[in-house]
Each structure stands twice: as C-alpha cells, then as structure tokens.
Amino acid sequence: MATHIRAGEITAKRISPVGSDRHTYEITLTAYFDMQNGEGAANAQNSVFFTIGPVISGPSSNLDVIEAPRLQPIPNIGNNTTRNTYTITYTFRSAGQYRISFEEDNRNNNVLNIGPPPTQNLNFYVSTILEISSSFGQNQTPVLLNAPIDVAAVGQRYIHNPGAFDADGDSLAYRMFVPQRSGVNGSGINLQYKDPNMVTPPGSTEAGASPATFSMNKVTGDLIWDAPVTKGYYNVAFVVEEWRDGAIIGQIVRDMQIIVEDARNDRPVIQPIPDICVEAGTLINQPITATDKNGDKLTLTSSGGVYEASLIPPAIAKFTVAQQGAQSTITGLFTWQTSCAHIRLEPYDVLFKVEDAPGPAVPNPALFRKLVDMTTVNIKVYGPKPTGLKTTAVNDPTGTAYRLNWDAYKCQTAGAKIAIYRAEKCTDLPEDVCSPGIPAGSGYQEIGRVDVNQTTFLDNNGGEGLRPGVSYSYRIVVMFPRPGAKPGDPGYLIGGGESLASAEACLNLPLVMPVITNVTVDSTSTTKGVITVKWIKPAAAAGLPAQYRLFRASGQNGTAFTQIATINTNLTPGAPDTLFVDRNLNTEANAYNYKLEYYTTQGGQLTKFDETETASSVRLEQAAAQPNQVGLKWTALVPWDNSNRVHRVYREDKRKPGTFNRIAEVSVQGPQTFTFVDDGTDKYAADGTVNVTIVKDSTYCYKVETVGSYNNSQIKPSVLYNFSQILCISSSDTTKPCPPVLSLDPLNCDSLRAHPEAFCTSAGFTNHLSWEYPKELDGRECDPLVTAYRVYYARYEGDSPTLIATVTTPPSPLQTTFDHQGLASFAGCYYVTAVNRFGSESAPSNTVCRDNCPMYVLPNVFTPNGDNKNDTFQPYECPAFVQSLEFKVFNRWGAQVFSTKDVNINWDGKTNGGKELAAGQYYYEVTIYFESSKKQSTPVSMKGWVQLLR
Fold first, then answer.
1. Where are the chain's structural domains?
2. Residue 186 and residue 58: Cα distance in Å, rounded?
3. pLDDT digits (tens, 9 = 90+) for 304-352
4. Sorted alphabetically, which InterPro entries does this protein's record hold (predicted)?
5. What single string gives the DSSP state of each residue in 257-310?
6. Side-chain half-sphere CA neighbours of 306 within 13 A
C-alpha cells in the first residue's frame, strides 16, 4: 500500500521500416515517483505492465499484457522526485488504432483536487492512442522533454510546458483531460476532479484580478495557473494530440503533479522573447535574459528537440550561460546553425526555464523554496526563395505556350519538389517570412511539379494550349518532405514546409478587354435610385471601331440580364466611354448585378470579342446586436478583392438631415460579407466627432463605402471605392428573442425493463425533445418573429454543449420538437435557443438532463458442466448502459474465490487460477458504474447468492 506515483506518460516510436509488413514499435513509460513519501515502493518498482489492444473495446482475448523492465533510473530530478523509464519492443498484429495503457497502485496521498479520498487508494492510469496506417508512413508519438513536476507558490503565477517535440514534424495541439483510474479492457474511468483553482474559494491572479484562473493554451501547450491559493498536492492531466494533413493520428495523456508551497519568495522572470522566422542556412544568435527582484541567484536552462542529435541532424542548437547560478540577472545565448535539413511546416519549440536559489539576502536558506518561470520560443525554418524565374514564348503544337526557366535551387533536399503556380494577371503578393508559400485567395493555381534539381518547365495548359493575349503570371515554390521521410513514403510532402514564393515572372501583355472597376450607389430611392458603373478601356490601337454593351440584372446574384446601354467608341484617348449612370432604380429594395460585353470590328462587322466578369452593387443590411446598439452587415459580389482592406461606415447626422458623417473604419477579412456594430460612438475623428445615444424605437440611417483592388499593376486606379445604398433602421429591431422552455419526454423504465431484448437489438436510442416559446418574459414582450431554433447537446453535465440541429419548418409555424436519434444511451443534457430574422440568438433555455434506465439482472443458479447450456454465470439478456463493474465471489466461509471486471462476468465456476470450485452456494458482491449524465456516476451495489450445480 505504499504511495509513490506522481506523474507519467507513454510514448511510442516505430522501429520497423515503412512498407514492411511488420509494425514494430518501441514503447516507453516515463514515470515520476515520490521519493519523500514512497521511496521503498519506488525503488521496488523494477517492472511495469502495459495493456495493449484496439481502442474500440472488445473481448479481453484481443488484449496483450506485456511486462516491461526498468532502465537505469535517474535518482533525483528535484522536488524529491525520481524519473524511471520502462521500455519494451512490441509488434502490432495489423494496422489500426490502438490504446497502450499503464495502471499501478497507488497515487500520492492527500492530493487535493481528485477523489474519492483517500487518494492513496486510487490507482494511477495513463494511456496513449497510436494510429498505425500505411497512408501515414513513418510515425512516432511526440516526446515530452520537460519533467511534469514543479513547485508553484501561493499567490504567484505558475506555468508548465511539456516541451513536446515531434520528430516527424507533425502538428501538435493540447487540451485538458480528467485524471483517470483503470477500467475494463485497458480503458480508463474519470476520477472525481476539480480544476486546481476551484478546490477552494477562488482567490485572485498574481496581478490582483479576480478570480484566479487555470487554463491551457491549445497551440503552445502552456499550462497556466494564475494563481494558487492553498498549498498542497494537485494532479491534472492533459492530452497532446498529433495531427497530420488535417487528421488526428495519435494522442498522449500526461498525468502530472503540481506541488504548491507557501514559498515566501517571488518567482524570477524571463524577459519576453519574440518568435523567430529564419531562412534555412541562417545562424541564430538569440540572447535570453532573466531577472529576480529579490536578488536571488538564478540558473537558466533550455530544452527542446533542437538539442537532440537523434532528432535534429546534422547541426544541433547550443545554449550557453555565463556565471550560471551566481547572479540575480542572468543572460544566456541560444545559437543554432540552421540548414536545409531543418525546413519543416511546424515551428520548433524551444523552452527556456529560470530557477532561483537563495541569494545573500535570504536569512534562512534551509527554508527557501525554489520557484521557476519559463517561456517557449517558436522557431520557423523556411526554404530560401527561388531565384531567376523567367518566361519565354515558344512554338508548341497545342497553341500558345511558355517555357519557364530559373536558377538551380540552393537546397537540394532529396524528395523535394518545385511547384509551379500560374495566375491570369500580373499580381503583387505580400511577403510574410512566417507564412511561406503562396497565400490562399491570391488567384494563383498550381499547374505542375518537377524535381528540385530541375530548372525548367513547359506550360501548354496540359496540352490544351493557353489563351492568347492573357497576361499570365508565374511563381515557383519549393515543397519539402517531412523530416525523416523518404521519397515514395506515403504523404512524404505533408508537413515538410515550403520556401518563400519566387519573384513574379509576368508576361505583362496589354489588356485586350475592358474591366469593371465601380458599381457605386449614388442615390437611394424606390423609384429614382442611381448607380454609376465604371470600367477601364482595353489597350487597343486608337481609331479601331468598337462597341460596349452594358447589361443589368436584379439582385446581387441576378442572372436575368437585360441590355441597358450601347456605347460606340473608337477608343480615342479622353473619350467619355468608360462610365454609365444607371437611373430610375429601386435601390432601396434591390441590389443590382452588371456585366459588360465588348465588340470589335472584324471584316467590317461588329463581333463579340469577350465579356467581363459580373459585378454587383454593395448591399447593406441589418445584423444582430445587443440592445442599444445597431448591427450592420454588407456584401458585394465583385471580381476585385474587397477583403484585407479598411471599409468606411457612415451615419446620418440628425442635426443636418442628408449629411453623413464617417463614424468608423472597419478592417475586414472575409471575401464577401462584412460586419460592424454601432454603439453610438463616433470612432473616426478626422471629419468631426458626432456621438449619439442609441435608444429604442429611434431610427438611424447608414451607408458604407467598400475599399478594394484587383491587385494588378495594369488596372488603374489601383484602389476602388464603392458606396452601398442608404439603410435606415430602428434599434428596437435588434432585441434578442426570449429563451424557450424545454422539456424531455419521460422514460418509461418499467416498459423498457419488460422488453430487455430491445437493449440487444437496438441500433440506437432516441430522446424526444419539445419546447414552448413564451409570449413575454420578465414583463417584456418577446420578439415574435422567430425563424429557427437551435438544439445543443452535452454528453455530461458541465461539458460545453455543441450545436446538433437547427430546427425550422417554414413558413409557419416553426417546429417545436426534435428527436435526437442514434444514441448509444439516453444519458445527456440539452438546451434550446431561439433565433430571430436578424440572426440574433436568445439566451439558452433551461438545461434538461436525463439518465438511463439501468438494467442488470443476475440469475440465482448456473451449471458449469460443459454441456454448453448455462455453463457461465452472466447477466440476463444484455446488461444496459454499464460503464464498468467490479464483481467478487465468496464461499460460505467468506473467502474470496473469484473476481473480474468483465461487464458480462462470464464466471465459469473456477477460481481466477483455473481451479474448479465445488458445487454449492456462493455469495457475490457487484459494484456497478452505469452510464450517466454525470462524468463520475454514483456506484450501485448488488449482493446475492448463486447456486453452482454440476
């Protein structure tokens, strides 16, 4: 019963070659033992047992239980903790998803945030999920380089980072997890758990804000507790997920211990360090400085995969510190000579940690408690920019074609490819060294790849020829394999990173087609609305007879085009042939879509040469907002780019009707729909500040001006401005709808128990929800114009619900019921919200939770005589909703003769050692945990007698 296990995790590394029929892995448990309270037990832990089997629970025959010996332990890593590693080599039967788990009695005693107490009676359990698939190629789990034992101080911010490193270059993500005990078939069962900041009444953060917080950054892995209140032991767990090409391919659970002390000491601080993005081949020299305001002596260390020769060949990083452990201000120098071998998609995480020790001002060094601070720096290594890209027109049987040539590339990495991109315009691209490659939405498409040692490519559009007269733009990017991957490995280019895009090589041919540049609303009216359409003329010879034909359709997506103008032109410079004012429109109710056809004279006849892409007017509409605010949204379906720009919002000055004052400049991102919420504050002071108080039932008028560009140096003006119509709306329209009142149809457990066969044959269970929408709430009228209901579900109480359905039966009335089908059990929690015509969502309804109708019935006799009839003692029919159980059998003198955790028991009348038991009566006890809406279900005990007949 010695208590000694503090923390641990399981990692795995493939050692058989990719493509081999054997899936052989080295599996390692890294465990951390308490040498203060359980030294004897820790020293005696010479081996451990791994349970290995499919993630989907099956019969115990599918599991392997393998003993792993201990390697030489590291006696003391600090904080009275020893690190022990246990390793085996194991060959999996086939590809698939496997769980590797470890369990052992006992944990430390007096852990404050897990239970039930005493915690020395809880076993320690961790697991790792490993995905083995030929489509993944080489794969190993991340390794966690930072020990999971640190001292935290009452009232001071605590930070831990596992220092996870993935040698395959896979992406890592982090999330909190509930510490577990062992279940059946190698699975785990959640312990009673509270986040450490919730064990006692929440205090405050180190900076004095309330309440204290506890969280984990899903990207960096920083686990931050700001700040502890009560000293003692705390255990938390988290998952490190491994992602490749958008799919999760494995996960590690780390269960760790935080030791909180009343330190009477201030933690040291590392000065902030920016993330680093460098071209491969760059020598990094980054100083790291830490200080201690108490004058304590500091030790500055660093960890990460960049220091491991087995992980980062050929050149590893170095971290040097002068006068280590002798000063209260200390500086280290991180150096790393990067190379082409280090290029990868994911950044390298380098952890820096500072620890204090008693300085000259400490009166009693024996009572000193060391504290730490740490920070993680992300280092992105990208490929050098390709150089010398040029294009040349060539004769080709397919028609128009271009030969691309470039300089030999610097990084001749085996398996790397040069990707060729093309766009149909000369295009300026912003360069971001932290985001190499071609940015999404730039207009470039990949048209081919060649090996990295090639310096030429022929573009004839796949044998179909290119369009004549188009200004094709080309760029090239080098794509690298994942670290350690080899040519031919599945997905070897996934996760390998890219180079910066080359400089543009553009043909820069004269534009032979007009291009629409403006569709702007000049006047808003139901009958006298005005829209101005502008375009640029093609670069053709002056005097060439030509004609424009302008077409219009109602609606931004309108396709029913009608010709509204014919403009003859000879393209004489200065001729007014690039503008049309469209009048007598209903711009208040409608948006309009335009296109322009271009005709040239061929053989004395006007002939259609081409037509432009369509361009719509800007449409302004109301959006959801809080009371005393006005929400706006606007769209424009145009061939130019309105995103990544600053749009302008105007509000009518009621003191000067018809005069609009600019109140905001809105940075927008998405390609089409943009939003803004007006709280009455004028956020643009250059034209005067006009603030208003937005009140219910008052009307406010707005218009917006979009700002966009073709990002094409041939199209002038380069920046395009277009107004929406004027929209006048009332703030009362933004009121949120009221929350519905939800109910669940009750379960008839007696009826279900009367037909237990349903539990064996059901393809899934169904919960029937219904709700009512109130007419008023707390004395206010509820918005009657509800257009939809949203149904949310959480498997357990306290979990964040997720949206599972949006319910509506247009046009009226709305459906107010929903069947949640295909469930594995009835247990779960629900709430419903209402959504009005502006997209405003109500507060949640009442939350309704449901538990199952558990059924577990045992017989009172069985006959293990080998006649295949009633040979095993097991529950009737199918045991319903059993999460786990512990079953024990005693003879009439009270001696235990058999035990199991098998949900179906399957007792064959023998002892656990295989000895047949005599006929007679036996007493049993069963402790059952049923599936529930609570994460930690309440155990149910059953006791009885069974007659064993032979």
1. 5-134+142-261, 269-381, 383-509, 515-616, 619-734, 741-850, 861-948
2. 10
3. 999 988 778 788 999 999 999 999 999 999 999 999 999 998 899 999 9
4. FN3_sf, Ig-like_fold, T9SS_type_B
5. EEEEE---SPPPEEPP---EEEETTPEEEEEEEEE-TT--EEEEEEESGGG-TT
6. 27
pLDDT of residue 879: 76
Identify the DSSP state of 805.
E
Q: Is the pLDDT of residue 849 over 70?
A: yes
Chain-centroid distance, C-alpha 518: 39
Looking at residue 604, its pLDDT comes to: 83
- Maximum Cα interatomic distance, the chain, rounded to a whole number of Å: 116
Half-sphere exposure in the Cβ direction for 488 (13 Å, CA): 3
Domain 619-734 belongs to what topology? Answer: Immunoglobulin-like (2.60.40)
Q: Which two tokens stand for residue 502?
A: 């080359």
pLDDT at 1: 41
426-467 pLDDT, tens digit per residue, is: 888 888 999 999 988 788 999 999 999 999 999 999 888 887
Class of domain 5-134+142-261: mainly beta
- Tokens 């690039």 locate to 578
DSSP code of 499? B
Torsion sign (Cα): 101, 106, 112, 114: positive
| Superfamily designation of domain 383-509 | Immunoglobulins (2.60.40.10)
Tokens describing residue 321: 């510190």
First to last CA, the chain: 39
Fold classification of 741-850 is Immunoglobulin-like (2.60.40)
Task: Say which CATH architecture domain 861-948 belongs to.
Answer: Sandwich (2.60)
Q: HSE on the CB side for 15, CA within 13 Å? A: 10
Amino acid at 76: N
DSSP E strands: which ranges in 105-179? 114-115, 124-132, 143-144, 149-153, 158-160, 164-165, 171-177
Average pLDDT, the chain: 88
d(CA 855, CA 942): 12
573: CB partners within 8 A, 6+ apart? 542
CA-based torsion, 668, 669, 673, 678: positive or negative = negative
Q: Which CATH superfamily is domain 269-381 in?
A: Immunoglobulins (2.60.40.10)
Of 242, 502, 500, nearest in space to 381 by CA: 500
C-alpha 185/C-alpha 53 separation (Å) is 8
Cβ contact 310:363 at 8 Å: no
* Fold of domain 515-616: Immunoglobulin-like (2.60.40)
- Which tokens is 160 given? 């831990």
